[in-house]
Amino acid sequence: MAAGKEPTIIIKKIKKVSGGHHGGAWKVAYADFVTAMMAFFLLLWLLSSTSEAQKEGIADYFTPTTAIGSGTGMGSGGGTTSTDGTDKSDKSTVAVIKGGTPAGPGKNTKDTIIDADLEQAEFDKTQEQIKQAMEELQDELAQNVLIKITPEGLQIDVVDSDKHPMFNPGT
């Protein structure tokens, strides 16, 4: 070696990781498990503390009302839907009285029938106004709007169809 030059010493320190907590993925899995168990026990509690009428109301809330091109296992809410997206279900309606119970035989009073008829007339008028406005637009997307009268009121569904999608595919 030349005088005055010392050799350069390079020290490589290798850190050994001793496993520790093995990452944090187990925490996410455990949190998901605890959340699912909490939801399950809330469901059990609700089922045990509700009446049959309340259970039917909850089931009706989660029942799908329309299905376009329904596949295996998908109900269409009692009606059938054609491939072009039009509803083929029956157009029967049920008047709903204050208090939320459907009007049926033996439950109607004269005032209730009159109120139900006025409400039905309002629904029909509103439905026609919306249909006329959609026709005036002369837009192909007007076919994607389904309007029907249900026991709960006037139902307006905006749906996708194969011929006229609401959004560009892949967006």
Write a brief structural summary.
This protein has 171 residues and is mainly α. The protein has helices at 25-49, 52-62, 110-137; strands at residues 145-150, 153-158.
Task: Describe, in plain words, how this protein is organized in 3D.
By secondary structure, the chain is mainly alpha-helical. Helices cover 37% and strands 7% of the residues. The protein has three helices and two strands; from the N terminus they run αααββ. The chain has helices spanning 25-49, 52-62, 110-137; strands at residues 145-150, 153-158.
Secondary structure: elements and pairs:
Layout: H1 25-49, H2 52-62, H3 110-137, E1 145-150, E2 153-158
Antiparallel strand pairs: 1-2
| Sheet with the most strands, sense and barrel status | 2 strands, antiparallel
The secondary-structure element order is: HHHEE
Question: Which parts are unreliable, with pLDDT below 50 for 5 consecutive residues or more?
Answer: 69-104
The number of helices is 3
Taken as a percent bin, the fraction of beta residues is: 5-15%
Q: How far apart are the termini? A: 69 Å
Shape: elongated
Q: Specify the structural class.
A: mainly alpha
> Helical percent range?
25-40%
Global Rg: 31 Å
Tell how many strands the DSSP assignment holds: 2
- Average pLDDT metric: 73
Strand adjacency order, main sheet: 1-2
